[in-house]
Structures are given as structure tokens and as C-alpha cells.
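This entry is retained here.
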Amino acid sequence: MSGFGSGDDVGDHRQELVADCRLRAATDLFAHTWDPVVLAALQEGPRRRGDLRAGIGGISDKALSEALRRLLGHGLIERLGYRQAPPRVEYALTELGASLVDGPMRALGAWIDDHGDALLAAQDDAPRRLRESGSRASA
């Protein structure tokens, strides 16, 4: 049991919410800026590294390499090598990766569609709110 999203009270699972819990492992999948972007780019099907880089605006070669390495390590993508001249390599979502893209990432995308403007506005307004809350806390 994850203690999150299972319909149970999160407080009942405090012992499970530790540094190595499944919830942390799942949220870590979104800790690196480019990882979800690479996953989303692969939802259309297998792609070559150069096609990924061209299709993802602003990603450096190093950032793409690191993202691919992390996603391979997490079992979310696979590297498909083809024996031909010249050799060809593509990256594709695994079943686990596709379930992440089709489930939580799709739900997060819907939330962003509904609340993204409010989130950006709140981030822009954060310095003012933090100043105000700091002055109230010291009063």
C-alpha cells in the first residue's frame, strides 16, 4: 500500500512515508526537468536520439543523454538497436513508461490545463506573499 491515492487515510501510513517509500520513488520521476518531457516525446512511438533532440526545444545534448540514462535505469524506456549500416538506435517507452505517460502524466496535464495559469500567477506573486507572511510572523 502506498498510503497515497489508495483511498486510505494518509495518516494511517506514516511509517510507510519514509525516505525509501514508493511515493518518493514515484515523485522522483518528476524531479528532473527533462525526464517527463522526454517521456512525452516518446508517446508517439520509438524515436532516434537526433529526432528527440530536434523535437524537444531547448534541451542540450548533455541533458538529453542524462535524461535517457535515467529513464533507461528506471525501466521507463528501452534502447532499440538495429543491425544495419549505418547502425541505428531508437528509444521507446516500455510498458511501465507508457503506463506513467497514459496515467499520472495525462492527469497532471489535465490539471495543468485547468490550473496552470493560476500556478504561474501564484509563482509571480510569491515574493509579495512571502514578504507579507514574514512581516505577519514577526509581529
